[in-house]
Specification:
Elements lengths: L2 H7 L2 H34 L9 H28 L3 H29 L10 H36 L1
Helix pairs in contact: 2-3, 2-5, 3-4, 4-5
């Protein structure tokens, strides 16, 4: 079965389980490593004109905001959906959508810190690994947001209209 077919046929509970396992757990693994790598690059290459100074602090802020967001989903929104309380889920869904926009803005700020992930020619392996992992994180977070906004939340909106 293709991923698209699975998404169309999956129940809300299956979608939520997928989101938790594929995205929430993944982000919780990704961000501490990104922060560690960014701190190292900033410490070692702070005098380099293309050093992504401030990147680790931005990633720490993203981690805190994303952790808060995922906790709200896990503790409030997702249990409401699983219990079939669709009408009451509209408020939390609107909050989650607004926070998704904030996450998108935070991702865009990564471009400012990293010069659109454009590495200097003399970048070390740590710097290269950092930018490679940021690209993966960005891809994962965008897919996570799209799955919730375009599939899960749209289904719930359809149930409550």
């Amino acid at each position: 079965m293709s991923p698209q077919t699975w998404l169309e046929k999956a129940s809300e509970e299956e979608l939520i389980e997928h989101i938790l396992n594929r995205y929430h757990d993944t982000h919780r693994d990704q961000l501490p490593e990104l922060i560690r790598l960014a701190q190292r690059v900033e410490r070692v290459h702070g005098s380099h004109p293309e050093c992504p100074s401030g990147l680790s602090a931005h990633l720490e802020t993203m981690q805190a905001e994303l952790e808060s967001h995922m906790a709200k989903e896990e503790q409030i929104l997702f249990p409401m959906i699983v219990r079939g309380i669709s009408g009451m889920a509209r408020g939390p869904i609107s909050v989650m959508r607004a926070e998704h926009e904030d996450h998108g803005s935070a991702l865009a700020r990564l471009d400012t810190y990293t010069n659109h992930l454009d590495l200097p020619e003399d970048a070390c392996n740590t710097w290269r690994k950092l930018y490679e992992q940021i690209a993966t994180f960005r891809e994962d977070l965008n897919a996570h947001i799209a799955l919730e906004n375009s599939v899960l939340f749209t289904r719930i909106d359809g149930l409550t209209t």
